Fold these 2 entries.
Entry 1:
Amino acid sequence: MRLLVVGANGLLGSNVVRVGQQRGWKVSGTYHSTRPAFDIPLTQFDLRDCDLFDDILTEHNPDVVVNCAAMTDVDGCETNPEQANILNGDAPGGLAAHCDANDVKFVHISTDYVFDGTERDPYSVSADTNPIQMYGKSKLVGEQAVTEETMDALVARFSFVWGIHRSSGDLTGFPAWVRGRLLSGEDVPLFTDQWVTPTRAGQAAETLLELIEHDATDLFHIACSSCVTPYQFGEVIADHVGSSEELLIEGSMDDVERDATRPPYSCLDVQNVESELDRAQPTLREDVETVWNALH
Ligand SMILES: NC(=O)c1ccc[n+]([C@@H]2O[C@H](COP(=O)([O-])OP(=O)(O)OC[C@H]3O[C@@H](n4cnc5c(N)ncnc54)[C@H](OP(=O)(O)O)[C@@H]3O)[C@@H](O)[C@H]2O)c1
């Protein structure tokens, strides 16, 4: 399989590169501002130049493209909605159209923030969307554009992505911040009024490539099977760091002033990916265990 990863230096993108290589696939990638340290063919590409994507397909000749690039700064999207619309709303449809014209399978990543957070049971893939901030609105436009441009695209929604960046080797995202504070003996304020199903980037990359091998199309939710608050996620990390839970401080989303509103509940129901692949998604504890074993 020839795999082209768009956004190969992102957290997810670097994991998709790594998992593709582990499977013996012929992997190439694009990057935006920083060239990742992978020994694969790489081309600089800006999502704002979608017209040039045809040349990139000719250069790398992939069977499948996985688009891991996006404007992921939720507050940045709120203050720069034009940019959010271009990168998250317009670009995915442009990439999908080029893939469709060249008979290349297209895989796109979306977000749990397409939901408004008013539910208290995990959102299924058929649940109504109603994004409440610019990031989610622009990502929803992107999802819809992809499915309009190509019949057999695979779209996967993630929630609260974290893991090891496979170019730098560093633990990235929320657990890195929690671990850092715990190790230096600092208090860790954590929300008790937000619920998410954290997506480990390495596990998501494995799952995406399995779905590609299954020739799956349509929409999937990829996350762990545990619906937790950041505080509960912090408790699991504290267990693994071997640190006292006394440093974990209960906090509220209202304590923090941010440009964009977050949904209080965005847990994803992962049943459709579990039945497609005939296996369970990991629990959060299993995901943390996997990462800690890899780091130590
Ligand atoms: N992070 C989360 O919690 C979360 C939650 C749900 C869904 N998702 C989705 O998961 C996917 C992967 O996210 P991630 O966590 O891996 O994010 P990430 O680490 O921030 O990676 C985003 C990538 O997009 C690239 N990018 C940004 N602007 C670009 C541009 N103008 N042209 C080309 N590339 C550009 C970035 O490159 P540069 O850094 O070089 O600009 C980076 O490689 C995204 O679709 C995101 O919306 C993320």
Entry 2:
Amino acid sequence: MTATSSESTGIPAPRTTEDAAPRTAWFQAVPFFLVHAAPLAALVVTVTWTDWVLCGVLYAVRMFAITGGYHRYFSHRSYKTGRVPQFLMAVVGTTAVQKGPLWWAGHHRIHHRFTDVDGDVHSPRDGFWWSHVGWILSTKYKATDVDSIKDFAAFPELRLVDRFHLVGPLALAAACFLIGGWGGLVIGFCLSTVLLWHATFFVNSLAHVLGRRRYATPDTSRNSLFIALVTGGEGWHNNHHYLPASVRQGLAWWEFDPTWYTLRALAALGIVRDLRLPPARLLEQARVRDGAFDIGMFRAYWERAARLAGDRIADLSARPVAVSVEVADALADTATAAPADAADAVALERSALTGLIARALESADQLAVSTRRSRKGATPVVRDADPADPVVE
Ligand SMILES: [Zn+2]
Ligand SMILES: [Zn+2]
């Protein structure tokens, strides 16, 4: 949400009381829990193999609509397609019951902009439940953040699909009932929907907790085969945070990514085009030894904090200040606290990393205040530094 960031700089603003304790819209969440309970009805209604096939097919097709459509197309524009396939993808996407394409992609873009720092809509630093499902059920993110998705919001038909996003799921539920009766509804529709939800939500929760890291990204994203298996290739989340515009997320041949295979087939059929792939040099750059932890994450985090802090100072000060002594000190403290031992690092990782940005921004704020004061009198103590290399001794 742009409400959580400074209008002019895009830097996350300090948390407010509302941010700290967003409310869950329990009453509006009732249908969500009912769909979870519905498959239990299979104990009393007749379920045929057709219903199980329906369940499997609806899982696979709707998963692709989310991964290939909502995620890789609407959120990241990692390939191109015509207006009609774009519309169809949006409509099929709504049947996955994850709201409209503009709502979904708008919030996802915010996640990439503020990953694991204030402003992230679903960072696991706010707790597993929050990142998994809490943020969806909260009152905080109900509205579509049109500012983040202006490009697609320009299409009136997409705005319509986004607004009436419940029409698709209701029509699909009715169709399942017509095909398989109660069995079709509770297994074909409800069970596949529940599985689809949690597999997708794993990408927001587990993919920032579980797995290994290949690239030094300034966030906690990880690569996980398990999540790739259940989401059709979205488990290579560290790859994805490193190269968000890449249509392909499984970068090694063995990194199972059926969404990419399907998009390649659709490209061969001429339905989609211009699949974006990363240049070879980027694949080796920022690469760290595959593992659960990398010291590069500290460094990348550190640099990002310095950049944010430098931006904030530059924004608030009329002088071209990059990194102040105070900010550099705060950053250096954290950096020297970086543990050498990998096991300690894993334990310290969460608190150290999340505390880092907060401290840097806090220092930047303090400096901004003293800069304003000192403009009237003495010159503030500042040194110029390259924001990309914030080491100031
Ligand atoms: Zn992520
Ligand atoms: Zn993404």
